[in-house]
Design goal:
Helix content: over 70%
Structural class: mainly alpha
Strand content: under 5%
Largest sheet: none
Number of strands: 0
Length: 208
């Protein structure tokens, strides 16, 4: 099992990485402002699932396979970058709307939020760097068993990301009242779009 020092190191490293503003948390704030708490937490579940996928990739050594099949890894990077560009375009062209706190999100909106959260995480260079590069420095993956992965790393990852994400969502809900102006909404969504575009460019640059 993992020692206390390793557990605390993992929580601190993951918490810091998650708290640093990136495409995921920026999009989470924007979605929470426009769609409310339910939309925000739905998107957060997608973000967390993406992290769990990369955690599994790192723990079970699939990263080695990915690096051996360079062409496949490059194709995945390009596909993720293209999707991030599409999301960036949608956020940039977002038409400001009146913020209705009592309005419930539709199933289609929730599904879109969840899928966006998943794909943003899978295409986020920061997430990739953490699980494939930084995680091995915090925890020795050679000694991580299926039991440790399922009973410790997965619950810890969910707990940390849920806690950090909840802070961002609650903060977004607090400022919803101040985002009634079209200009404020436009600035928020265009900022999210710009960060996603920069992330996409960063992914493409690594493949060249």
């Amino acid at each position: 099992m993992l020692g206390t020092a390793q557990i605390l190191s993992y929580i601190a490293a993951l918490g810091l990485a998650a708290a640093i503003p990136g495409p995921g948390m920026t999009a989470l704030v924007a979605r929470s402002v426009s769609g409310g708490a339910v939309t925000g937490f739905t998107m957060l579940t997608g973000l967390i699932l993406g992290d769990l996928i990369y955690l599994s990739v790192a723990v079970f050594g699939l990263a080695v396979i990915a690096h051996n099949y360079t062409s496949l890894f490059t194709l995945i990077n390009w596909a993720a970058s293209l999707y991030l560009c599409c999301l960036a375009w949608q956020f940039w062209r977002y038409q400001p709307q009146a913020v209705n706190i009592d309005q419930r999100a539709t199933r289609k909106q929730l599904a879109s939020a969840w899928f966006s959260g998943l794909t943003i995480t899978l295409g986020n260079p920061k997430t990739i760097a953490f699980y494939l590069a930084i995680l091995p420095l915090v925890i020795s993956l050679d000694n991580v068993s299926l039991q440790i992965w399922g009973m410790m790393l997965v619950p810890l990852t969910i707990f940390v990301l849920l806690a950090v994400g909840a802070v961002f969502i609650l903060a977004a809900l607090k400022i919803r009242h101040f985002l009634t102006s079209a200009e404020a909404q436009r600035l928020l969504f265009r900022s999210a779009g710009a960060i996603m575009l920069l992330a996409a460019i960063g992914m493409v640059a690594k493949t060249l």
